[in-house]
Amino acid sequence: EVYAAQVTSELLKSSMLFPAAPDCPKCSTGKMNFYGKVVKCSNPECGLPVFKQMGGKQLSDANIRELLKTGETGIIKGLKSKAGKSFDASLTFDSDFKVVYSFPEKKPKARKPK
Fold this sequence. Notes:
The chain is an alpha+beta fold.
């Protein structure tokens, strides 16, 4: 019984299981708390929400942490448009801290001389 209590206590203190909540990128005073379908700022005056699903795809906690920390995710493949077409994009914040798609610039294909 004592052993179980010690193990439980150590697990609860582990940063591997419960990484520290990231700072809010909008207000910088609140912490971004992870809930079922949303990640939300703990500051009631801010309340910035980041939804865990975009483009028909469930975002990983790693994607969301990257967005909160750097302001952008890497390319996420297989997102779906409202018309059902598949596309690849990264996620970023706009000036109002709404999450928006950012499309990679396509490099023009080099033309072969005739």
